[in-house]
Specification:
The protein is an alpha/beta fold. The protein has one domain: Maf protein (Alpha-Beta Complex), CATH 3.90.950. Strands 1, 2, 3, 4, 5, 6 and 7 form a 7-stranded mixed sheet that branches. A hairpin with a 4-residue loop joins strand 5 and strand 6. Helix 3 crosses helix 4. The protein is elongated. Bound molecules: thymidine-5'-triphosphate. Thymidine-5'-triphosphate (TTP) binds next to helix 1, strand 3 and helix 5.
């Protein structure tokens, strides 16, 4: 088996990040049910989804190379926040992130027909205090809509971040170092 993989993701960020790793890949999207189970912990949730996306790729017939699935959630007060469903939801989220530190959890999974291997990377991100105006203007930029927690650290949302501890790449959607390590372990095992 060569180093080439499949990327089971619709995310343009994950495509860019995987390109940055120099791994040859083919991208396709999978349609996974992303709802959280009752009482499911954020860590378990994000890891389950990454595995589900990878295994859905295998189930679609992409079986000749490892399939990479990944998922990102923002966690504050033990609650997982996905993409905002509307401006109200977004405003509520940004007010919770404002002036606080939250965690971004990104899970990565590789799957083939006979095995699946995954890991979760946690990064702490601290936001400055945001005004109502800043929050409203940011929503109108169109950037928050498709991003976990309603912000993009790599875009206009970057100016809200006063401190980050951990993997910047994991916040954007794919931790470079950990993904490469996981693939090496997967291919060896
Ligand atoms: C917090 C944060 C999230 N994000 C993105 C990463 C993920 O693409 C997205 C979270 O949604 P995900 O459901 O993890 O991924 P996705 O729907 O974009 O792609 P797919 O499921 O097909 O792989 O939020 C940023 O781009 N920047 C950030 O700062």
């Amino acid at each position: 088996m060569t180093n080439a993989v499949y990327l089971a993701s619709a995310s343009p960020r994950r495509k860019e990040l995987l390109t940055q790793l120099g791994i040859e890949f083919t991208q396709f999207s999978v349609d996974a049910d992303e709802s959280q189970l009752p009482n499911e912990l954020p860590y378990d949730y994000v890891e389950r989804l990454a595995r589900l996306k990878a295994q859905s790729g295998v189930a679609l017939g992409y079986t000749d190379r490892p399939v990479l699935g990944s998922d990102t959630v923002v966690v504050i007060d033990n609650q997982s926040l996905g993409k905002p469903c509307d401006e109200n939801d977004f405003t509520h989220t940004l007010k919770r992130l404002s002036g606080n530190t939250h965690q971004v959890l990104t899970a990565v999974a590789f799957a083939t027909t006979d095995k699946v291997l995954s890991c979760v990377v946690s990064t702490n991100v601290t936001f400055k205090t945001l005004s109502d105006d800043e929050i409203h203007t940011y929503w109108q930029s169109g950037e928050p809509q498709d991003k976990a927690g309603g912000y993009g650290i790599q875009g206009l949302g970057g100016r809200f971040v006063t401190h980050i501890s951990g993997s910047y790449f994991a916040v954007v959607g794919l931790p470079l170092y950990e993904t490469e390590q996981l693939l090496q372990t997967f291919l060896r095992g």
